[in-house]
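step=encode ok
step=design start
structure_in=
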């Protein structure tokens, strides 16, 4: 896919080690972290950043080190 996309390549992905390794190998222009639920056809809600802060920080650090931008599809509901 990296060889055929002539515009910016954005991977929407869950924050898992397996897919992160793929992203680091493929070198997309950007990664957007989204929650993953097996039965969803499309993302129906955002990430709970507060509950996943440390793993997200580590993944973002690894992407940044390789020059890959990152973004988060977040849950906009305030936590209590």
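sequence_out=
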């Amino acid at each position: 896919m990296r060889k055929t996309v002539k515009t910016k390549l954005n991977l929407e992905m869950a924050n898992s080690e397996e897919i992160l390794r793929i992203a680091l190998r493929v070198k997309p222009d950007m990664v957007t972290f989204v929650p993953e639920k097996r039965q969803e056809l499309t993302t129906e809600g955002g990430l709970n950043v507060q509950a996943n802060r440390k793993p997200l920080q580590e993944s973002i650090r690894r992407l940044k080190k390789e020059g890959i931008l990152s973004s988060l599809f977040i849950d906009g509901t305030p936590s209590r």
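step=design ok
step=annotate ok -> The chain has a mean pLDDT of 87.
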